[in-house]
Each structure stands twice: as C-alpha cells, then as structure tokens.
C-alpha cells in the first residue's frame, strides 16, 4: 500500500490544490514538503519537515482535505498522522509568485506593494516566522492570535507582516485590513483626545474596532504611553473577542518592553510569538539574488555578491543598501561592477571614520552585526546566539581599547572582570581553531576601526 500511495502522491496533492484552490505559496510551504513515511493499518504517516508551528497548523488546516483527496484517488479512507523527522532538516521551500492585481487596495490599507511573500526569501533565520505569518494570512483570526513577530532592525518584520496583509487582501478583497505603525496609532489617540468631545473617541473606536485584521508595527514605541496602552487594551479585547486577527511586531519580546502594562504583555503572548534572526551567509546571498531579479538589476558576478554578503551581515536593509549603492555608482560612472569596484564603493560604508572606539561603540556595532539589541546582548541570557557575540565584545574591548577590565565588565551588564578575561581567552583560542570566529573578528574589526 505504501508504494501505491507514494506513487499516487503527486496526483493526490494536485487534486488537493485544484479542489481546494490552494495558492502556490501555501502549496509549496505546507504540502509539497510532506513526505509519505509509512502506512500502518489504516493510518498514513506523514513527515512534516518543519518545526512545531508547521505541524500543528498543517494538521488542523489540511487533514480533512487531504483525507478526502486520498480517499478519492486511492479508493479507501485513511487516517493521517503527522510526525517530525527523526533527523532534522532539508526544509528549504521557497515560496514564489503571487500576482497582485489591485495596487490601490494595498496602498489604501497602508501597504507597500513590494512587500509580499513572493519577494521574501525564507532562510533558517526566518523559517518559523514566515510559516506563522503565512498560516495567519490563510486563516485570519483562526490560528495564532495575536501573532507577535519580533527581532532586530532590518530583519524583515515589516516585510512579513505586510506580506500577510497583502495575501489576505488578495484572497479576501472584502476583508478590512489595517496596517499602522505604533506611532500612527498613538498619534491618532492623541488627536482624538485633543480634538475633544466624545465623537472623536467614537470615530477612533469605529475605525479600529470594525476591522478584520489589525496590524501594528513596532509596538515597542508604546512603552510608557499609558493612555495609548489603555486604548490598545480595549481595542485588542474588542477585536480578539470577535475572532479578528491581530498582528504585532516589535524589536523585543513583550517581556522585554519596558513600561508595558502587564495585562497587555500577557495578551501579546496569548497567541504565538516568533522571532526573526540575522540571516546566515547563504540566505544573504539568496536575498541579494532575489533583489537583483526583482529590481531588474544588470547581472552581477558571484564574487561581488559574495563580497557583499560576507561583509554586510548585520541586517537586511544594509545588505540591500550596499547592493543598491554599488549599482547606482556603476550607472553614474558607467563602470562595470567588478570586485575591485565594489570594494571601493563600499569602503566608506564599512569605515566609520568619525567614530571613536569605546566599549559602547563596540557593543553597539557587535549588537547590530548580530541583529541583537544592546539590552539583549548585555542581558543575563545564556543562549549561545547571545553568549558568543557578548564574548566577542569582551575580546574586542580588551584588544581595541585600553579601558580597565572592571569598566568593560560594567558596560557589559555589570559582569565581573574575571568573566571578561574568560570571554577574551575563549575567543582568542577559537581564533586559532575556528575559521568562522576568525572571520567574525576580522569583519567586526573592519567595522569598528576608523579609516
Ligand atoms: P524590519 O521591519 O524588521 O526593520 P523590514 O521588513 O523593513 O525590516 O526589512 C528591511 C528590508 O529588507 C526591506 O527592504 C525588506 O524588503 C528586506 N527584507 C527583509 N527580510 C527579507 C527577506 N527574508 N527576503 C527578502 N527581503 C527581505
Ligand atoms: Mg519595520
């Protein structure tokens, strides 16, 4: 039976796609990666090569349609069991293509038409966030509510949220989707108060409570704004109680936002919170290629792309900026984009000549490089993604400044000077043994040292 099902699997999937009108992006993200592992009695075991977000969601959303199509094509009913792979990985689906027809609708909703799922490159840094955003876009208000996306500057939060909005509007043009920045949201509250009178307030409430999807970007700016927090609390409840989707982004986890009411913080965590990390080297190259394709840049050779990707790793906005700059200069000067040309153009981007080298500047540059906030970097957290950059700071502060160890310790979250020595020695050892560490130190030094 296993063989039959495997053989017919493409047909089953195709049938499913047609019958249920599944979009390309959903199909490629959820269904194509499924693997028929075994048949045990009346149960088909399917492997979901994804972390839990994907598994639960696929089970909920696609079990029934899959069962129907299997029964139709195989002629027998089966139960389905979804499992995670024993050995991880190989999930590498890159959703493509989605046609946007009505630009105005998107612009009215406050969206940048460029930010779609098809222009978003999925890498291991964004796998989970992408899957969650797509799940929410397919089933607004039904799965993760709210969806809370967080991560450092320029890592794709706005892009992903808007992609979800875009997807929703493309497939449900009647839905009322509203994207606002936190600043817009708080300004409107202030205006409503200033313009006085109950009507202003009523208008505000009408606007924010009669929608299907509310997206608020950069919610960290609500920190300390009590009235806005109160209003958001009531807006949140009204929408949530009516199963309306809420999507929020922030540069921090809710618990790390200072001066955020506890009741809001807990609501932000009711649904799913996912983070976006800095992309790895391969993903950075893929993002550059995507940008070249989308913006119709002239072909650019691999050595130039590799040069950019290995030198700009802190955030995607900078990565794109570096590419745009090289292309613009080559047009202006009618030069070919050779490696040497690229190196020259980017020279000043990497050298921060006005900056003095201090523990603060080092901590800032290292944080940005790894897409972390300074607060996270100097926090007490012990996960490797944070410990490693923190130890790099210890090493760089010790080698590039002559600031006392106790002061370096103080700057790095009140740590003891022995911790600094330990971190310094660890990196020093690893520089000899580990090429990645050696490269990271090289690149960071380039960023830190003026000239
Ligand atoms: P954030 O809101 O996290 O600061 P943005 O969403 O504004 O970041 O992203 C910054 C830039 O990088 C945008 O131009 C966006 O299109 C691009 N970008 C971010 N992530 C990706 C990705 N995974 N694939 C392609 N482009 C991306
Ligand atoms: Mg943003």
Quick structural overview:
The protein is α/β, with parallel strands linked by helices. The protein has 20 helices and eight strands.
Features:
binds magnesium ion; 8 strands; alpha/beta; binds adenosine-5'-diphosphate; globular; three-stranded mixed β-sheet; five-stranded parallel β-sheet
Task: Tell me what you see in this structure.
It is globular and about 75 Å long. Helix 3 links the parallel strand 2 and strand 3. With 451 residues, it is an alpha/beta fold. Helix 5 packs parallel to helix 6, helix 12 runs parallel beside helix 14 and helix 13 packs across helix 14. Strands 5-6-7-4-8 form a 5-stranded parallel β-sheet, sandwiched between helices. It has a 3-stranded mixed β-sheet with strand order 1-2-3, with helices on one face. Helix content is 56%, strand content 9%. It is built from 20 helices and 8 strands. About 3% of the residues have low confidence. It binds adenosine-5'-diphosphate and magnesium ion. The site of magnesium ion (MG) has 4 residues, from helix 6. The site of magnesium ion has 4 residues, from helix 6.
Mean pLDDT: 89
Helix content: 55-70%
- Ions, cofactors and other bound molecules: adenosine-5'-diphosphate, magnesium ion
Strand content: 5-15%
Describe the main β-sheet briefly. 5 strands, parallel
* Structural class label: alpha/beta
Order of helices and strands: HHEEHEHHEHEHHEHEHEHHHHHHHHHH
What does the secondary structure layout of this molecule look like, with pairings?
Layout: H1 2-19, H2 24-31, E1 35-40, E2 43-47, H3 52-74, E3 79-83, H4 103-108, H5 127-138, E4 147-151, H6 157-171, E5 177-181, H7 182-194, H8 197-209, E6 213-217, H9 226-241, E7 245-250, H10 262-268, E8 272-276, H11 281-294, H12 302-311, H13 316-332, H14 339-350, H15 359-369, H16 374-377, H17 384-400, H18 405-411, H19 417-433, H20 435-448
Parallel strand pairs: 2-3, 4-7, 4-8, 5-6, 6-7
Antiparallel strand pairs: 1-2
Helix pairs in contact: 1-3, 5-6, 7-8, 11-12, 11-13, 12-14, 13-14, 15-17, 17-19, 18-19, 19-20
The chain binds adenosine-5'-diphosphate and magnesium ion.
Adenosine-5'-diphosphate (ADP) binds at residues 115, 119-121, 126, 153-159, 287, 290, 316-317, 320.
